[in-house]
Every structure is written in structure tokens, then in C-alpha cells.
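Quick sanity check, Phosphotransferase family protein:
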Amino acid sequence: MTETDAHETDPWVQYFAGRGHPRARRLASGMEGTVYRLQDGIVAKVWSGRTPDDFALTRRLYADIAAHPLPFGTPEILDAEECDGVLVSYERELGGRPLRSGGDGDPPARDLPRSETDALLTVLRALATVPGTETMRRLVFQGDDRPLRQGHSCFSDALAALVERAAGRNRDALAARVPGLADVVALTAASLRALPDRPDSVIHGDLVPPNLHVDEAGHPVAVLDFGFCTTAGDPAFEAAVTAAVWDMYGPHAAHHTAELTRLFARELGHAEEILTLYQKAYALITYDLFGMGPHDGHFRWCAALLR
């Protein structure tokens, strides 16, 4: 994570100082919350929208992943507490630096460097070896109201049902940007249900540059922030989503998606048509998670992909 300037008026800095961490400093903020460096390799995460009651599932998820040897670190919960209804967890600080962060300045070049694509392949191959667990199958995708796998033994069937639910959440807004939306949804769901079942592995679901930490040589040393679309399912879904979201808004974004989709199909043995199908499914299940106005980049990106 990129260390930011500490604000002396930050109430959480004062809170951690009162808990015996006088050198607490804010590191970064994301969808799930804000992270503070405390001391001796320990960080604290102040969660947004996560209640203490459902955090036990997250702790089991992290333990399930950590139980399987990986060539990089993953989150480990040491302790958790509640402060005025807000969940605070204490974790091991993961090493390395973000492969790329939003404040890096220049967008990625048209041709991604070999070190970057090699790092992605390393992470995708490794995560595909972590078997799916019952804890992973109980997780809820961001924006939904039930565990993805509830009532479904097959990942692609569960995803098809989610596509239909999510498309109905704000159908009119999406239909205004995607002609023939009903046909797009019906074809996507039918195509998902026609896929053969595959053994489950863990799916991170949000492998974007800030969530992949590397060392000075560019080798992955940590993967952060499981939870946005984390579940147990087809590793081809992980590869498809990663190819699509690695660069969503840069001047060469479409080229990067196509380049990575071809690379992952060739190197990981996934059919390209299945990867593109999963990318459409991802657009349909996340289009409204950040906003639906003309200025929301994610909404526009999803609509463009579906068109």
C-alpha cells in the first residue's frame, strides 16, 4: 500500500494511539474500509459496512486460503473488535508494493510488460490450486442479497441466476444504454447454464493492480482484498474478470482486455469464448454497484462491454 500523510485529527489515529499504538498512521482507503499501519508488522483495518456478526465468515475464508501453500502472502486476521458499531480487525501487514496504483501517473503502455503478465499468470495459476470450501460457497457477491451458491451445486448455474437477479435490480437504467438488453440477459444466462461443471477453486474476483503486491524484481509477494466477488467456482471466471478489469479506463484498455484474454486462454487452457461469456456476466452483475449516472465510469464500462 502507498503510505499517505497522517492526519493528526483522524479519530482512528487517536483511537489506535489510545490502544497502545502511538505511531499509528493511515495507509490507504478502499471499498472495504481504511487501513492503518500500527507497529511491528501489524496493520488495522476499519471496515465499511461490515458488521461484527458476519465477520466470522471472513476469518474462516482467510484461514481456508492460508491453509493451502501459495507462493505469495494472503490476509491473516489476528484479532477483531467493535468500536461504536464499527468493525476493526488487526492483521499481519503484507509485504511488497502495489503492482500499480491509481496515483501512478502515466497509464500503462499499449503493450503490457512481460513482468506484469508473468505476475498475473503466477497468481492465477496459484489461486486455481486452492480448492473451494463450504465457507467460500457461503459468501455473498457485492450488491446481492444471498450467498451466490445458495441452492446451486454448479457455479455456472449459480452465476446465471445472479445475472438474472442483478439485471432486474435496475433494468431500466441499463436498458437505456444497452439495446436489446432482455436478449443479452437471456442469452448470457442460457449460455452459462450450458457450461459443463468444473471443480471449484477459490475466486478472488477483484484482481486489480493495487490488490497485487510485488517485490523489486516484480514477483508477486501478496494478494489483498478478498471479498468483493470472492467465492468458489470456475478458475476461468477469475481469469476472465482479471483480463477485463486489469485496465478498465486507460487509452489502451480494450487492447489490454483482448491481449490478456488471449494470453490466459493460451497459457491457462481456457476457451476464449468462455472467457468472453464470463466477462459479459461480470458486467451484468456489477453494472450498478457504484452508480448509474452518465459520469459513473464503471456503469459506462459495463454498458459498453454488453453492447
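Posting the structure with no commentary besides this: The radius of gyration is 19 Å.
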